[in-house]
Amino acid sequence: MSGTKTYTGGCHCGAVRFAVEVADDAHVARACNCSICFKLGFLHVIVDRDAFTLVQGAEALTTYTFNTGVAQHTFCAVCGVKPFYVPRSHPEGVSTNLRCFDGVEDGVMARFEVTDFDGRNWEKMVDTIR
Predict the structure, then answer these.
(1) Phi and psi of 31, rounded to 5°?
(2) DSSP reduced 3-state for 35
(3) Structural contact between residues 88 and 95, judged by C-beta atoms closer than 8 angstroms
(4) Taking Cα atoms as reference points, which of 46, 31, 24 lies closest to residue 111?
(5) Helix (H) and strand (E) counts for the chain?
(6) Pairing mode, strands 28-32 and 4-10
(7) What pTM was estimated for this model as a whole?
(8) DSSP summary character for residue 38
(9) Gap between the Cα atoms of 54 and 117, Å rounded
(10) The dihedral of CA 12, 13, 14, 17: what is its sign?
(11) What phi and psi, each to the nearest 5 degrees, are found at residue 92?
């Protein structure tokens, strides 16, 4: 049985803060090439909802939806950064943005294997996500 590592992170201005538990054997981040993730540079670390805690900033979040409306794209209304959201692929989970983790500049990103995900062909590829 593997353990977990807790990471903290947030948006650019600090209004939104979160904590996320990542299993030791699940240090994978996905670089998606769909229309929104590619433009945002979002690196997905997907966790179950109970592994995610919004520490502060619920009042600073705004939500954007498109297409099917299943994904709930949350952004900080102050600085515009998207530190996490509810993904269409895992509506019972949360996708956190590895680029928003504290310590990214100091080596936290190196703990994760970054893999590509072909989100432009989402319907064909969605079953390849854990």
Answers:
(1) -95, 105
(2) helix
(3) no
(4) 24
(5) 2, 10
(6) unpaired
(7) 0.87
(8) H
(9) 26
(10) negative
(11) -90, 0
- The hierarchical CATH code for the domain 4-128 is 2.170.150.70
Beta strands in the chain (DSSP E): 4-10, 17-23, 28-32, 43-48, 52-56, 61-64, 72-76, 84-86, 93-97, 113-117
Are 65 and 104 in contact, with CB atoms under 8 Å apart?
Answer: no
Two tokens, residue 99: 């680029």
Size of the chain, expressed as the number of residues it contains? 130
> pLDDT tens track of the chain, all 130 residues?
469 999 999 999 999 999 999 999 889 999 988 888 888 899 999 999 999 999 999 999 999 988 887 778 899 999 999 999 998 888 899 999 999 999 988 889 999 999 887 766 656 656 666 5
Locus of tokens 């969605």 = 126
